Amino acid sequence: MTTKIYSVTAREILDSRGNPTVEATVILENGYRGTSAVAAGASKGSHEAVELRDGDKKRYMGSGVLKAVENVNGPINKRIRGTDALNQQGIDTALIELDGTPNKSKLGANSVLATSMAVAVAAAASQRQPLYRYLNSLFTSFHQTKLDRIPTPTFNMINGGLHGAGNLNFQEFHIVPASNKPFHEGLEMGVSVYYSIKQILQYRNAVHSVGDEGGFAPNLFTNMDALEVLMDAIRNTHYRFGVDIYLGLDLAATQFLGENGYLIKDKPIAYKPAEFIDYLVEIHNKFHLLILEDPLAEDDWDGWKKLTSRIGSDVLIVGDDLLATNPERLKKAIEMKACTAILAKPNQIGSLSEFMNVAAIAKTHDIKIITSHRSGETTDTFVADLAVAIQSEYVKFGAPVRGERVAKYNRLLAIETEMIAAK
Ligand code: PGA
Ligand code: ZN
């Protein structure tokens, strides 16, 4: 009995927003199996690999994934049956060739990635290895990386933009525990601040329903007010701002760039791009941000370069929509010094080996990595193992609440315990 693939099958399941997504199961000839499901974004960058949706308005408002499922059960199964699951790169290359397009628009990144991840899960099981260890061994052929620490979590505590039911333009307001805290301590800090934020919002009589990633989705006067809420909340705990806890932002700025510039509720008329850079520097001077993600639109390379030259030595300027976990865009950003960190999302590129290649390029050029979930998630915890395997500096898995977010944080707790025991 060998580690050859006996079959790969897929099905349509639901993500945390109730949207369909692809889950695949790989069974090996030796009986070991692996299952994995793909996440989905709401504020997608235009340079991401293509997520195949059926477009049939009679089912799930057009967002069904039956075609992607069919692609797994049909051509993908036919192509990779009988190949060795331990040869992850060979399988990913075969899938990329089978698709044949630069952005996986034929088979869909959802069908390719679900298969790619399920192959790794089955292979790890067959080797009787925890997934993060097996993935780390795969990553070693891209970049020698020793398993050492659990990435620092960055918690999305207030949800705006496309993720929140409130009225904020910036998409995510984060708190980040200091990197010298052990993971379990950082997680506890996250929960303390989360409930402290709830109290502040109740006191301010702001709506405190939650958004897609579990953070609060209040109505406030300005985006700046949300940062003040975070500061007040931290003050009400025993943690020290700037020592134990820092702040971070994901603006997802492409979403509020209009014809006249960046329009946000803090100012009645839109900021011209150059003014907006000054404004971002002002925010940074006031709140000493640790992380600043997608501060400018996804194709404003010159703006990114200017901002990075002004404050990039002091705050992580993180490319999400800018880079789309794409090796060519990352190389361009490195050459231009357009950012200092990458938000790495498996489904933006669409296969495990390509993701690892991007992570290796980042590491070689001292670009920090934040391994990230999507706003539409399942309870799959693959991304937590992956983050540890590549030893990314940070993980972004949402607020420390809601099953699909907590599943990943809990997986990191388990890995932390195991890694401590192994030391
Ligand atoms: P998305 O948002 O998953 O909706 O794209 C996450 C992010 O912008 O970081
Ligand atoms: Zn983002």
TrEMBL record:
<feature type="domain" description="Enolase C-terminal TIM barrel">
    <location>
        <begin position="147"/>
        <end position="422"/>
    </location>
</feature>
<feature type="binding site">
    <location>
        <position position="293"/>
    </location>
    <ligand>
        <name>Mg(2+)</name>
    </ligand>
</feature>
<feature type="binding site">
    <location>
        <position position="250"/>
    </location>
    <ligand>
        <name>Mg(2+)</name>
    </ligand>
</feature>
<dbReference type="GO" id="GO:0009986">
    <property type="term" value="C:cell surface"/>
</dbReference>
<keyword id="KW-0479">Metal-binding</keyword>
<feature type="binding site">
    <location>
        <position position="320"/>
    </location>
    <ligand>
        <name>Mg(2+)</name>
    </ligand>
</feature>
<feature type="binding site">
    <location>
        <position position="163"/>
    </location>
    <ligand>
        <name>substrate</name>
    </ligand>
</feature>
<dbReference type="Pfam" id="PF00113">
    <property type="entry name" value="Enolase_C"/>
</dbReference>
<dbReference type="InterPro" id="IPR000941">
    <property type="entry name" value="Enolase"/>
</dbReference>
<dbReference type="Pfam" id="PF03952">
    <property type="entry name" value="Enolase_N"/>
</dbReference>
<feature type="binding site">
    <location>
        <position position="396"/>
    </location>
    <ligand>
        <name>substrate</name>
    </ligand>
</feature>
<keyword id="KW-0670">Pyruvate</keyword>
<feature type="active site" description="Proton donor">
    <location>
        <position position="213"/>
    </location>
</feature>
<comment type="pathway">
    <text>Carbohydrate degradation; glycolysis; pyruvate from D-glyceraldehyde 3-phosphate: step 4/5.</text>
</comment>
<feature type="binding site">
    <location>
        <position position="320"/>
    </location>
    <ligand>
        <name>substrate</name>
    </ligand>
</feature>
<dbReference type="GO" id="GO:0006096">
    <property type="term" value="P:glycolytic process"/>
</dbReference>
<comment type="function">
    <text>Catalyzes the reversible conversion of 2-phosphoglycerate (2-PG) into phosphoenolpyruvate (PEP). It is essential for the degradation of carbohydrates via glycolysis.</text>
</comment>
<feature type="binding site">
    <location>
        <position position="171"/>
    </location>
    <ligand>
        <name>(2R)-2-phosphoglycerate</name>
    </ligand>
</feature>
<keyword id="KW-0964">Secreted</keyword>
<feature type="active site" description="Proton acceptor">
    <location>
        <position position="345"/>
    </location>
</feature>
<feature type="domain" description="Enolase N-terminal">
    <location>
        <begin position="5"/>
        <end position="135"/>
    </location>
</feature>
<comment type="similarity">
    <text>Belongs to the enolase family.</text>
</comment>
<dbReference type="GO" id="GO:0005576">
    <property type="term" value="C:extracellular region"/>
</dbReference>
<dbReference type="InterPro" id="IPR020810">
    <property type="entry name" value="Enolase_C"/>
</dbReference>
<dbReference type="GO" id="GO:0000287">
    <property type="term" value="F:magnesium ion binding"/>
</dbReference>
<dbReference type="InterPro" id="IPR020811">
    <property type="entry name" value="Enolase_N"/>
</dbReference>
<protein>
    <recommendedName>
        <fullName>Enolase</fullName>
        <ecNumber>4.2.1.11</ecNumber>
    </recommendedName>
</protein>
<feature type="binding site">
    <location>
        <position position="396"/>
    </location>
    <ligand>
        <name>(2R)-2-phosphoglycerate</name>
    </ligand>
</feature>
<feature type="binding site">
    <location>
        <begin position="372"/>
        <end position="375"/>
    </location>
    <ligand>
        <name>substrate</name>
    </ligand>
</feature>
<dbReference type="InterPro" id="IPR036849">
    <property type="entry name" value="Enolase-like_C_sf"/>
</dbReference>
<feature type="binding site">
    <location>
        <position position="374"/>
    </location>
    <ligand>
        <name>(2R)-2-phosphoglycerate</name>
    </ligand>
</feature>
<dbReference type="GO" id="GO:0004634">
    <property type="term" value="F:phosphopyruvate hydratase activity"/>
</dbReference>
<feature type="binding site">
    <location>
        <position position="345"/>
    </location>
    <ligand>
        <name>(2R)-2-phosphoglycerate</name>
    </ligand>
</feature>
<dbReference type="InterPro" id="IPR029017">
    <property type="entry name" value="Enolase-like_N"/>
</dbReference>
<keyword id="KW-0963">Cytoplasm</keyword>
<keyword id="KW-0456">Lyase</keyword>
<feature type="binding site">
    <location>
        <position position="375"/>
    </location>
    <ligand>
        <name>(2R)-2-phosphoglycerate</name>
    </ligand>
</feature>
<keyword id="KW-0324">Glycolysis</keyword>
<keyword id="KW-0460">Magnesium</keyword>
<feature type="binding site">
    <location>
        <position position="293"/>
    </location>
    <ligand>
        <name>substrate</name>
    </ligand>
</feature>
<feature type="binding site">
    <location>
        <position position="172"/>
    </location>
    <ligand>
        <name>substrate</name>
    </ligand>
</feature>
<dbReference type="GO" id="GO:0000015">
    <property type="term" value="C:phosphopyruvate hydratase complex"/>
</dbReference>
